[in-house]
Amino acid sequence: MTSMFSLTAVSKRIDFFVFFLLRLSIRVVLLQELYNLKSGCPHSFVLYMASIQNKIALMAESISPGHGLHLVDIELAGSPRRTVVRVFIDKPGGVTLQDCERFSRALSAALDVEDVIRTAYVLEVSSPGLDRPLRRLQDFMLNIGKLARVSIREKIDEQSFFIGRITEVDGNTIRLILEDSKEVLIPFEQISKARLEIEIR
After folding, report:
1. Measured between alpha carbons, how far is 141 from 135 in angstroms, rounded to an integer?
2. Measured torsion, CA atoms of residues 121, 122, 123, 124, in degrees rounded to the nearest 10
3. 147-201 per-position pLDDT tens digit
4. What is the CATH number of domain 45-126?
5. DSSP, residue by residue, 27-77
6. Do the beta carbons of residue 176 and residue 183 sit within 8 Å?
7. At 82, is the pLDDT very low, low, confident or very high (cuts 50, 70, 90)?
8. Are 53 and 67 in contact (CB under 8 A)?
9. 175 in helix, strand or coil?
10. Phi and psi at residue 160, in whole multiples of 5°?
11. In this structure, what are the phi and psi dihedrals at residue 119, rounded to the nearest 5 degrees?
12. Which of 78, 124, 160, 178 has its CA 20 to 30 A from that of 26?
């Protein structure tokens, strides 16, 4: 009898705890919905930011050739009320402060005309840095002779990433020379992530 009473009491406590968590989760969802309505942002902020990033990338890629530049990467940060847009550009020989200023003015004007970002935003334009990402085939071509870290989707020789020097881009194939002088050929479509390695000389 005592054992049955104890089990019943424990069961009631568990039911109450589950009910409490359910009410709490519902309140969190309702508060999130209320916040979304007040801030004017879409239901999914992540999808919203991804959509904005794609639009900005298309605009930046169309503007950059006219300034002798190419787009390297775009990062978005901030909140639904204030977005920080970081755009990284480059050109052979490196970008100057004047390059960044001119490109920033051109991109900012285009963003305002198209009303891409409907909240307050800050636009930051700069060079990509020493450990810049390599996203396009052109990025590998422009960095032949430099050391890179390349992650791949399907293993080659039981390895999922390589650190080696870019020696050639032949069609869609990247040729790397590793530290042990071994050569590896990586199809561009197999690359999941790549960036330059900082070399200390």
Report:
1. 11
2. -150
3. 999 999 999 989 999 999 999 999 999 999 998 899 999 999 999 999 999 887 6
4. 3.30.70.1350
5. HHHHHHHHHHHHHT--S-HHHHHHHHHHHHHHHHHHHGGGGT-EEEEEEEE
6. yes
7. confident
8. no
9. strand
10. -100, -10
11. -125, 175
12. 78
Cβ 69 vs Cβ 90: under 8 Å? yes
**CB neighbour list of residue 175: distance below 8 Å, 6 or more residues apart:** 166, 167, 168, 169, 183, 184, 185, 186
Angle made by CA atoms 89, 161, 164, in degrees to the nearest 5: 70
Structural fold of domain 137-196: SH3 type barrels. (2.30.30)
- SS3 letters across 69-99: CEEEEEEEEEECCEEEEEEEEECCCCCCHHH
Determine the length of the chain: 201
Tokens at 102, concatenated: 């001119």
> 132 and 126 in contact (C-beta within 8 Å)?
no
Answering whether pTM is above 0.70, one says no
Task: In whole angstroms, give the CA distance from residue 58 to residue 172.
Answer: 23
